[in-house]
């Protein structure tokens, strides 16, 4: 019997378009003899689109409006063996959709409510990983109300980390809303941008030198495995949205040319983080490797990483001998596994 899979894509976050790109790849790759896959695109307003509108959104790469309220569709989601919530950012990768599916009793690909919520929020992630003894950059939290009522306190907190520093919405991805702040006079614009996107903002010290950026994939539930380590190289000042999604701006190196001891440390720290955050299914763990000092700092954990056929996560497992189609099949199998 073929398994019926509901593939959710799009969604309300700033990574709507990225999600649709990933969904097209996954739709093509799930073996048709094993799976009967129904895509449902969620509009930017959070409404779930019927089949014809979903197809139109997949073709055009975007759905601004249209569709039904979420609950109506979930009722009809019963009867699916599993859901693949291929959604990035808030209202998708952050535990909200995972909570809905948990309540509906439908197995799904990836981390549950806890792992998704904690990993989505960069501040919560930092706190949990700190208590697991994992090295990270120095950081501070600021909330929107403080920025509105005591802006000087927020400015001082940021300045305490030294310049340049990074200002990021706590719950986003694809570098949306992230600024590298080189001097104090650039700080207000960066904070306004980040607070326009999130109530919580993380202020991060920059690594002591421009870091090498290495990433590793984790696959599995309670007995996870780590992929080979990959590296991203680009000419831009940092890995911003344009660099991520403009063809030819960044190159992927798999395996990353690292001393074997460093690559092993990346894999082992990533597995520790995956467990500490109670992740499941998959995650891409991003690190900064500061060559000058030998420091390896964990940057973040992405519980639903970019998933086109040319994205880092699938490429990492391809290097380990697991092709794209086998990988997505494995993820659905993991979703159906008893935990
Ligand atoms: P993703 O698309 O991987 O989910 P994201 O939006 O969650 O990304 P980050 O990975 O936190 O964003 O940061 C984006 C990029 O900004 C990093 O890849 C790196 O180039 C740069 N960067 C972020 N924080 C720092 C830091 N503390 N020091 C140096 N560079 C940084
Ligand atoms: Mg991220
Ligand atoms: Mg992300
Ligand atoms: Mg990242």
From TrEMBL:
Metal-binding keyword on record: yes
List localization entries.
Cytoplasm
Catalyzed chemical reaction(s): 2 D-alanine + ATP = D-alanyl-D-alanine + ADP + phosphate + H(+)
Enzyme Commission designation: 6.3.2.4
Which keywords, in A-to-Z order, does the entry hold?
ATP-binding, Cell shape, Cell wall biogenesis/degradation, Cytoplasm, Ligase, Magnesium, Manganese, Metal-binding, Nucleotide-binding, Peptidoglycan synthesis
Record domain ATP-grasp: where: 126-333
Per the record, the pathway is: Cell wall biogenesis; peptidoglycan biosynthesis
What cofactors does the UniProt entry give for this protein?
Mn(2+); Mg(2+)
Q: Which GO terms describe its molecular function?
A: ligase activity
NCBIfam families noted in UniProt: D_ala_D_alaTIGR, PRK01372.1, PRK01966.1-4
Give the family from UniProt.
Answer: Belongs to the D-alanine--D-alanine ligase family.
The UniProt function text for this chain reads: Cell wall formation.
**Protein's recorded name:** D-alanine--D-alanine ligase
Record gene name: ddl
